[in-house]
Amino acid sequence: MPLLGELSALLTAFLWSGTSIVFSEATQRVGSIMVNITRMVLALLLLLVTVLVMGLPMQLSGSQIGNLVISGIIGLVLGDSFLFRAFKDIGPRISMLLMALVPAMSAVLAWMFLGEALAALDLAGMIVTMGGVALVILDRRANASIPRRVKLLGVLFGVLAALGQAAGLIFAKFAFNEAPIHSMVATLVRIAAAVLLFLPVAMLFKWYKNPFRVYAREPKALLYTSIGAIIGPYLGITFSLVAIVHTEVAIATTIMSLPPIIMLPLVRIVYKEHLTARAVLGALLAVAGVAVLFLR
Fold first, then answer.
1. DSSP 75
2. CB distance 240 to 165 below 8 Å
3. Each residue of 62-96: b (16+ CB within 10 Å) or e?
């Protein structure tokens, strides 16, 4: 199917825009680690049922499993933990804006480790898209209410989250380049690795409390986390893997960096934030850049 990678990346961006809001609401109630682990456990159960019911092939080599496990640990355990902490410190909008660093990071990593070179038109589309997102990032009026110390820590966590996502996708593509894998099976392996590593450690250090008690006190947090688990790890991560299989990692991650732009009307409606002229101009530039990537 033509443009399957680009369309999958665009769908991923829309899905992740929704998760940033619901996960932010959940983390404010029960904390980032509770949300991160719970959503992975829920997504793991959904994926396991889907793979078994659909009878998807699960024959993977040892190296494929190894790369997917590393991808899951870097991207889901480390990267997403930093992202959820950023959600808590600086909110969903700015956190997702910082994820605009992913395309640049992934382009460098893909060039170094996968030999993926980009054409001049690809680079132009990426630069225009990232420039548009940068305009929104530099909108000081939207960021002024955040305390300086919290803002700096939140930005650091957001940058680390971006690096984790970029590196995680590189290892996932290593696995796909070796032999075909169904995207849901690959997502299942990544999330299973993350849960098997993260859950015991979190329970040992008492970071992850009894979920039945926690969510009994905060039923809205469970609702938000459940919705996020479906549109995030279950669907979003799966389509992100479809994207990197059918197009260059840098192109896919550029399109997947659109949540800050997609979120502009959402935060206007949900959070009643004022949209400045700079934010609107940045959104238009980002859309133009993505159009170049689709029409190249």
1. I
2. no
3. eebebbbbbbbbbbbbbbbbbbbbbbbbbbbbbbb
Q: What is the pLDDT of residues 52-68, one digit of tens each?
A: 999 999 899 999 999 99
Model confidence pLDDT, tens digit, residues 84-127 = 788 778 876 677 677 777 888 888 889 889 888 778 888 888 88
Distance between CA atoms of residues 246 and 240, nearest Å: 10
Cβ atoms of residues 60 and 178 within 8 Å:
no
DSSP code for 119: -
Report angle CA 27, 29, 33 to the nearest 5 degrees: 40
Contacts of 208 (CB under 8 A, 6+ apart): 33, 34, 37, 199, 202
Residues 6+ apart with CB under 8 A from 33: 81, 84, 202, 207, 208
Question: Under 8 Å CB-to-CB from 17, ≥6 apart: which residues?
Answer: 96, 258, 259, 262, 263, 266
Number of Cβ atoms within 10 Å of the Cβ of 218 = 17
Helix orientation angle between 249-256 and 101-113, rounded to the nearest 10 degrees:
170
Residue with the two structure tokens 């680079």: 123
Cβ neighbours around 61 below 10 Å, total: 12
